[in-house]
Amino acid sequence: xxxxxxxxxxxxxxxxxxxxxxxQVTPIYTEPQRVTKxxxxxxxxxxxxxxxxxxxxxxxxxxxxxxxxxRLQFRIQGNISSGGHSVHQVRRIRLEKGxxxxxxxxxxxxxxxxxxxxxxxxxxxxxxxxxxxxxxIPADVKVIRTELYEDKINTASDTNPQLIAxxxxxxxxxx
Length: 175
Hints:
The chain is mainly beta. The protein has 1 helix and 9 strands. The strands form 2 sheets. It has a 5-stranded antiparallel β-sheet with strand order 2-1-7-4-3, with no helix packed on it. It has a 4-stranded mixed β-sheet with strand order 5-6-8-9, with no helix packed on it. The longest helix has 13 residues, at about 1-15. The chain starts with a helix and ends in a 5-residue tail after the last strand.
């Protein structure tokens, strides 16, 4: 019985593989910074505290990591603001395959942002997110257009997703 459990555990570990397409969300931290400014009307110095980002915000973009004849690997990245009593979290990034027109296909990715009740920590200004995607290229497709949208899923005022990044991958043979 003991050997059976060990053997079963070993097979379970061998069957595991890393998920390269996992969404990674990291906080954007800030630190307090004291600033002294002279007021021109009175000539006195005024000292106040601001917050300076320690972690750099990622620009929303889609870029290619690798490509071969049957698959394309690319990265989706971006950031969202969150702080104070406006706590926003990235739930997931979902894919909606668009229409194929001739040899062009459109892939639409939606970053689902959910507003949660509560208060964000003072040193968190937002969140960076990255996700690596692998897309199997059909034989008749030569141009892949990718679009990235922000979709606020529980906000009634903003029902239309907002386009934040787009990229076109052209695979026509260069002569």
